[in-house]
Amino acid sequence: MRILLVDDQPLFLEALCNLLRTTWTEGEFVSHTSAAAGVEEGRGQTFDVALVNAEALDASGLGPQAYGELGAPLILTSSSFDASILCEAISAGARGYIPKTTGSRAIVGAVEVVSHGGVCYPSEALAVLAGAKAPAPRIGASRRELEILQRIEQGSSNKVIARELGLSLATVKFHVQSILRATGARNRVEAIINARRMGMLPRSGLV
Question: What is the three-class DSSP state of 24?
Answer without folding.
Answer: coil
